[in-house]
Structure formats: C-alpha cells, structure tokens
UniProtKB/TrEMBL annotation:
InterPro entries: DUF4331 (IPR025566)
Pfam families given in the database record: DUF4331 (PF14224)
Protein name: DUF4331 domain-containing protein
Originating organism: Mycobacterium dioxanotrophicus
Length: 333
C-alpha cells in the first residue's frame, strides 16, 4: 500500500501474504457520479486469498466512529486453481460484528485470475474479485535512501542532508494485487457527507478470529508503526485510535519533521489520520485525503507531511493501465 508492508520488518501479517491489505480506494464512478466505487486490495502475490479469513470494508456514516455498514468478503478453499467468494452486507448493530453476518448479496462469484474480469451484478451492486494490475506507484529504493530501516528500527532516521533521495524508478510497474471492487449507489452510504471507510482482515486461528491487518489512510500503518506496535495496531478499532496512538504519532512527527507537539496534533487533525479511517465526502471530487483515486501520489503526500515539506517529490507518474470502466484497475501483468 501504500501499505504493501506492515511495520518495519517489511513483512506481511503472520508471515502470510494472503492476509496483507495493500490499498483502499474510494471515488465516484466515472460512468455515473451517483455511484461510488470502493476498492480493497490484498495479497501482493495476486493469487488465492485466505479461505479462513474475513476481508471487510466498514463504513461509519454518522461520525460516531462505529461501523454502520459492513461488506464482508469470504473466499472458498481453492480447488483445481479456482476460487469463489461470497459477499455479505451488514448494517446497524450487525455491522459491528467481526463475523461475516447480514444479507448475502453475492454468492459463489468466480475469482478472476486471468485478464478478462468476471463481473457480478445485481440491481444495486456491481462486484469483482481477482488479480489486477496494482495502481500504487512508489520509489522503494528512494524511500530506503531516506530512512535507515535496517535492523527493525523505525522511520525516524531521516537522511535528507540536501541530497535528492529519489532514483526515479517506480518499483511497482509490473506488480499485481488481488482486488475486491464494489460499486453501489452513493445514497446507500448514508446521508452524512463525512463518511469514514476502513478495511480489516481477520483470520481464524485455532477456532478464534484474529484481527491481523487494517487499512485506512495510505501509508499510515507503514510509517507510524514500529514492529513492537504493529500487532496491537492492526488488532485495534478506530474508535480508540486517538487515545491510544496520538502520543506515538506526535512523537514520530517530532523526529521526522521537527514538529512541536501542538504542530503535530494540528497536522494530524488537518489530514484526519486519527482515527485511521479514509474520509470521503461524495459531494466533492475524490482526491486524497477526500477519498482516494489512482492518480494520488500518496507517498509524496505522506513524506511531505512527515518532513514538514522538506522532502522533495519523487517525480513519478501514475500508472497508465487503469480503466474508466468497471473494475477500473487494469488487467494483471
């Protein structure tokens, strides 16, 4: 992702790429501005997703930081190179359940691993799951030039020193992800324009559901967590984010950008990264931090924020294989 790694060891949750949430997008449909597109990407290997996992998109539409709507994606055990997925819609109190509850709005949808997407439709919803080209662009070697991330240290040791850190090489031009793409009428998100969206991956281990990854603002989990805190962070819920993580976020910004405590809190609040839920007002054009689109350079945005504007832009361009039609992400490489 923006969260293609979790914490500083640069490894996936529980060492399993299938459980790794990569990116979260929210934007108006190019074909119909009255509809919203929500995309949750996982598994940078772009193969099967975990059959014992629940991948979830949750929406708060009344500003209480609790789930009012939840879409849960549950994948079958792969058989002979094929996999299917069920999609559940929960609302109200049911949306707070960590289990896949509510109405099953799609059942047994074929997961696509080839270039032609298998698209499922109802009157209200359009859905796709499968391998697609990754739209996230970043210069990973340049990031390593900026920070000393060896030995499990955190992202506090900046090495700007007046030198241009970027290599000019996009590390993700041939990358794929497994995407869950849902399009729905915007009115179904709720009346409050200040909608908050977040993703979660949970997996059943020894009969118990463990919350192992979460997705909200791009790159927040990657840059603000240490190896000591990532497990707790990924298991936590947004309603507790400010009380639990504000001090850690403020401390990091003091190191990376020389922020005072008050300046750091103001910067965090201006972007709205605590709670770590992607804010989207559908009445305004989607552009991060209002939703997120494929052309948003979220790494440049994040590093400018971390360094209080001292980090120069990478100069990379968005990928050109994205589509104006569903499922919007390009065919896999």
């Amino acid at each position: 992702m923006s969260n293609h790694f979790t914490g500083l060891s640069l490894g996936p949750p529980l060492g399993d790429q299938r459980l790794d949430l990569c990116d979260l997008y929210a934007f108006q449909s190019p074909a119909d501005p009255a509809r919203t597109v929500l995309i949750l990407n996982a598994n940078p290997q772009a193969d099967f997703l975990h059959p014992d996992a629940i991948y979830r998109l949750a929406i708060d539409n009344n500003s209480d930081l609790r789930n009012d709507i939840a879409f849960s994606y549950v994948f079958s055990e792969p058989v002979d190179g094929r996999q299917t997925v069920d999609v559940y819609l929960a609302s109200g109190d049911d949306a707070e359940s960590p289990e896949a509850v509510g109405e099953r709005i799609f059942g047994g949808v074929e997961v696509s691993f080839g270039r032609e997407p298998v698209i499922a439709r109802t009157d209200a919803y359009t859905f796709f799951a499968g391998a697609r080209s990754d739209a996230f662009f970043f210069d990973f070697d340049g990031i390593k030039n900026l920070f000393d991330i060896r030995g499990g240290r955190n992202f506090t040791a900046l090495h700007l020193s007046g030198q241009y850190p970027w290599t000019g090489v996009d590390s993700n031009t041939e990358a794929n992800v497994c995407s869950m793409v849902l399009e729905l009428p915007t009115e179904q998100l709720g009346a409050n324009p200040d909608i908050r969206i977040w993703g979660r991956c949970s997996v059943r281990v020894d009969g118990e559901l463990q919350h192992v990854d979460r997705a909200g603002h791009p790159s927040v989990s990657s840059f603000f967590n240490t190896d000591d805190t990532k497990l707790e962070y990924n298991a936590s819920v947004p309603i507790h984010d400010r009380e639990r993580w504000m001090a850690q976020f403020v401390h990091l910004l003091g190191h990376t950008g020389g922020y005072s405590d008050d300046e750091a809190v103001a910067a965090i609040d201006a972007e709205g990264i605590l709670p770590d839920m992607l804010t989207f007002d559908p009445s305004k054009p989607a552009r991060y931090p209002n939703g997120r689109v494929f052309t948003d350079d979220v790494i440049d945005y994040r590093l400018a924020s971390l360094t209080k504007g001292d980090c120069p832009p990478s100069g990379l361009s968005p990928h050109t294989d994205t589509l104006q039609v569903f499922p919007y992400l390009g065919p896999p490489h």
